[in-house]
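Propose amino acids for all 112 sites.
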């Protein structure tokens, strides 16, 4: 789960900027040995029943094209402070990610 901190539109494409990126969960960005990048199932946590959908890309805070968590997915229309949930992305978040990248804070892990 990661919180949206900004919503930007560039050349007609919506980007949801979140506070966690490849520095917290490398496999979601496709940089964990994937030959073909794929989107994991994603939802906007507090808008699961929303009927208004938008095509959007979810990007991390690192200002690099590699920090792409979802690429042009149909998601509920989201705004800053909404929460993005990424499902089925594996268990190697913190241990396989460059957590200290650009001095961003470490990921918080919660066992449920």
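Proposal:
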């Amino acid at each position: 789960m990661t919180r949206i901190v900004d919503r930007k539109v560039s050349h007609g494409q919506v980007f949801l900027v979140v506070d966690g990126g490849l520095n917290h969960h490398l496999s979601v960005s496709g940089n964990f040995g994937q030959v073909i990048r794929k989107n994991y199932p994603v939802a906007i946590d507090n808008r699961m029943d929303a009927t208004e959908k938008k095509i959007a890309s979810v990007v991390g805070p690192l200002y690099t094209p590699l920090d792409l968590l979802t690429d042009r997915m149909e998601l509920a229309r989201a705004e800053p402070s909404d929460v993005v949930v990424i499902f089925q992305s594996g268990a190697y978040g913190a241990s396989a990610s460059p957590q200290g990248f650009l001095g961003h804070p470490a990921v918080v892990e919660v066992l449920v």
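The chain has one domain: 2-103. The first strand starts at residue 2 and ends at 10.
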